[in-house]
Amino acid sequence: MDEIRVLSPTGALGSGYLETSLETALSWKPDFIGCDAGSTDPGPAYLGTGKPAFPREAVKRDVRLMLKGARRLKVPLMIGSANTAGGDEHLAGLVSIVREIAAEEKLSFKMAVIHSEQKKDYLKMRLKEGRIKPLDPAPEFNEAVIDRSECIVGMMGAEPFMNALEQGAEVIIAGRASDTAIFAAMPVMKGFPEGLAWHAGKVLECGAAAVVNRKTGDCMFAWIRKDHFVLEAPDSTLQCTPQSVASHSLYENADPFKLIECSGTLDLTNSQYEQVSERGVKVSGSEFIPAKRYTVKLEGAEKVGYQSVIIGSIRDPFFIRQIDDWTERLLVRCHARVKQVYGDRMKPEDYFINIRIYGKNGTMGPLEPVKESLAHELCLIIEVTAPSQDVASSIAGIVRHQGLHLPIPEWSGLITALACPYNPAHLDRGPIFRFNVNHVVEPDSPLEMFPMEMVMVGEPTQSKVTA
Amino acid sequence: MTKLAELARLIRSKNAGPFVLTFDVMFEDEARYQRVKNSGALTREAVAGCYGLPPKDVLFFYCDHARAVKASIPRPYFQGDLRDSDGHGGQQYAPLMDIEIP
Could B22 and A369 be called an inter-chain contact, meaning their C-beta atoms sit closer than 8 Å? Predict the structure, then answer.
């Protein structure tokens, strides 16, 4: 085998791609189709709630076309980071979509389902052994954090995909996975240089993002060979250039030259980029430095509380010029009123009132270098976070009333300070979540955190094997 | 003197995971990239200054193949946490636009 051909239909499952691009790519005879279906970028709520960031119908459309294509060519389809966050609920959601499509399209195949949600006992054991290490920056991680987490996933490397392929999987649906590992697994398994396999994977995982003139989510194709790889987008109106491909390693990475994976570091310091056709770019020189110790990154989410939000604006220049003082006085008033209403049942540390001032530093907060706002109106977003929705909602009611009528010295008499566009004036957001882990685990083996089930889809008898 | 925003093809910010913010300053052609790179005005210290951070907190890179300058900083609040104001980190680059390039 002197070449391996790879199709990535889209940079994010559920974000879409052109069917015409997929058909062109299928005519180029890929050896496998890979797709990244997740990210932390949409935020902690998805990991916290088990819900996907993209609508089910949008994901189903995207899966249907690539699944039919993969079965037509009889090549593996590998999807990683199921339903955004890759927890067991996310994985089950994507598996149910795949099963529905298989039934509707009368497809049958051997499917590997690889889990990435971590058992709390396992994490506590590794923590005790000192085999969970912080990355930089990292929040505090201890047994209490593990206990209060809604979901903690491990980000799998290429090995669980290789294992599933070795066992004959035709479709692999994986929980949280390194985006790049989905694409590197088969080339590395077939003996292609790791530097090229991982670098190609890094570009492929974002679909057509590495083109000059990105229009919408779309397909990317790669030919990986022994001493280089070539990238080209199937849509004939899209062009890769050395600069566009090199730029892609900047996107969402802290370090554009060194990308850390479970099994090592992809090093792009010596990568060379060359235009080989009107729309195609050749890449060579990328290196992969094996890690001394195999590590698996964790992602976790915990519930912070329940939240209610008030949106109100201010137009009066007397208010605007003393907004910091006014909001400080508002907080003092609100806390006093909460104490009056709840007594000892609600201490100041049990709830949190956050006031964002748009028109001043709402977007950048402490990073905002502009200290004097010239705005003629301000928008306040006031959030109340509390242990229950009922309490959050009740305190928001208190904040609304205090905010409406908190006076300033310039005016005498009863004033109304906030213009509230909504009625009721506050919005209940339900539970809210935060990311609570930025650590890696040192497992005994690359597979131990990622149990796999192998199932037959679309046939009357379903055999089940656990690896 | 020219403002960086007038020389760059794209200035952007984004999350690099939930805990780090990253900035990309990208140029259309080699001449403008080299002008900025050699100016001594877009540096680790300049980026640190824009965000009120000590220079040691800023990762800083010149990416010649990409004709881009890149910097990364720790997030003031983790993505999605209580005081975070920009879940995708997409609107944190504006102060870089005004850096004066000789």
Answer: no
Element (H, E) at A27: helix A19-27
CA distance A402 to chain B (A): 22
Torsion of CA A214, A216, A219, A223, to 10 degrees: 10
Percent of chain A exceeding pLDDT 70 equals 98
Q: Do B18 and A435 touch (CB under 8 A)?
A: yes
For residue B68, the number of C-alpha atoms closer than 13 Å in the C-beta half-sphere is: 26
In sequence order, the 6+-apart residues with CB closer than 8 A to the CB of B97 are B3, B4, B5, B11
Of all residues in chain B, the percent with pLDDT exceeding 70 is 100
pLDDT band with cut points at 50, 70 and 90 for residue A129: very high
Angle at A258 between CA A255 and CA A263, to 5 degrees: 130
Phi-psi region of A83 (alpha: psi -120 to 50; beta: other; left: phi over 0): left
Helix extents (H) in A50-193: 56-73, 88-105, 120-128, 143-148, 159-166, 179-189
- Residues A132-139, mean pLDDT to the nearest whole number: 95
The rounded radius of gyration (Å) of the Cα atoms in chain A is 26
Q: Which of B11, B30, B81, B93 to mutate to test the interface with A (most CBs of A within 10 A)?
A: B81
A242 touches chain B (CB under 8 A): yes
- For residues A299 and A320, what is the distance between their CA atoms, to the nearest angstrom? 41
Alpha carbon of residue A409 to chain centroid: 48
- Per the CB < 8 A criterion, the answer to whether B85 and A43 are in contact is no
Instruction: Identify which of A343, A217, A326, A232 has the alpha carbon closest to the alpha carbon of residue A279.
Output: A232
In the predicted structure, residue A196 carries a pLDDT above the cut 70: yes
- Write out pLDDT tens, residues A444-461: 999 999 999 999 999 755
| pLDDT over 90 (residue A214) | no
Q: For strands A77-84 and A171-174, give the pairing.
A: parallel
3-state helix, strand, coil in chain A (%, to 5): 35, 30, 40
According to DSSP, residue A306 is labeled E
